[in-house]
Amino acid sequence: MGSIFLLSRIFVPFVFGACLAGYGNRRILDTILGPIVLGLSVTALYVLNEGLPAMPPNSSKHKLAYALVMVPALAILCRHLKMPAQAFALLAYSFTFFVWLIERQLFSGDLQLHWLLPVSTIVIFTLSVSQNTSSTHTAFGWPVALVAIASIAAAIAFLGGFLGMGQVLLSLVALFGSLTFGIYLPAFKNQNADIKPYTASALWTLQCGLLVMLVQLSTFATNLSIGAYLFLLMLLGLPLIDKKLPPLSARIRPVTLAAISALPASMALFLAIRNF
Amino acid sequence: MNLLTKTLTAASLVMATVTPAAAADQYTVDKEHTWVTFSINHAGWANARGMLRDVSGDITFDKNDVTKSEVSITIASDSLDTNSEQRDRDMAGADFLNIAEFPNITFNSTRIEQTGERTAMVYGDLTIIGVSKKVGLNVAWNNEAPLPWDANTVKTGFTATASFDGTDFGMNKLVDFGLGPQIDVSIDLEAVRN
Known about the structure:
The complex is a heterodimer of chains A (276) and B (194).
Chain A: H1 2-22, H2 33-50, H3 60-78, H4 85-101, H5 103-107, H6 116-130, H7 141-159, H8 163-189, H9 200-220, H10 226-234, H11 238-244, H12 253-275
Chain B: H1 3-18, E1 25-42, E2 46-52, E3 55-61, E4 70-76, E5 80-81, H2 85-91, E6 104-114, E7 119-128, E8 131-147, E9 150-165, H3 173-176, E10 179-193
Antiparallel strand pairs in B: 1-2, 1-3, 1-10, 2-5, 3-4, 4-6, 6-7, 7-8, 8-9, 9-10
């Protein structure tokens, strides 16, 4: 069973991401098809791990599947928006999703203090997104952040009693990782190579997909380490740090960002293990 | 036969036809004397066992025609006890019982078939994590008697068993983690007559 899991949920998304990043020098990723393919990939990974959702959805897991399906369409609608409108769209969508998730408890008046976590996640995530500007210096900021956040979120999920979400996030790490490596590869071969960042709508798709999963995780994990989760949110500062870094070669930059992420990531992991 | 006798005979015949049969008795589940236990295969090593402690409900029991009886049971999902706090916490999560969204497991009978003098199959809608499926309980009626120290309190008792596939209710993660998916349930229930 372990080998089937590794093959279907880690290896397949990794290879798929590598193909997407490499195919015809990102012939699909950089077009309007990019967000569609990326969004459907994220949804497919979710369904692969969790199964097909019921229609109509009756639990939060089903609702997340439908929320993910909507993401590519929204990304295309938002592609002509500039910041901060794009960030506002992300905030509005993720907050609507959150309210949909908790509607049963809301209507029965069963308010929970820990809902501050998903709300904080939405606010901090969209604040970080709103600082994003397209620039070759920031080609790695968000890609590295997405990999780091998905990795630590997977660990927090596994250790926090939300095993299914951990599996999904692990699959996302494989996808995000291979996509990021696809961005990095030209620099690895030639440090003077032109590094192409994600298109705004492709990046928005991945950001939105990850954000709704973090909202789900922070709302429903039964043994979530709050300290670990707060350190996880610090990783959203990576794109901002990337903007402030001095000019570095494209070979060094992502490695530097990964090294910077190591401290909050390690703290998050330590606290999650301690809480287990 | 004189007129008085004829009149009394006629009156009793009429009363015999219009007097209704005795209504079914109503019972309330005695939570302190109800045990809902289950077992599920754990990766072939052994059967993991647990119980659900908080059980409530009502039973309408027609001893003359058991097919007219009704059962309605509610079990608090957060009363799960598998002898491990961490496992109970994991089982309460969104991957399994999802108690944040679905605090109760319910069973409502829809049809009863008598299978023996004191046994019946009770079919009904079992609802777990918002998914309802038809399940049959094999029920045996054990006894009905008043309490030794209180003749006014009458209890009746049942034993029931059932088996179902947890993945039918959307608990797909059971298989991923080497559990089941077949879940065998055993119930011993006492109810107090109202």
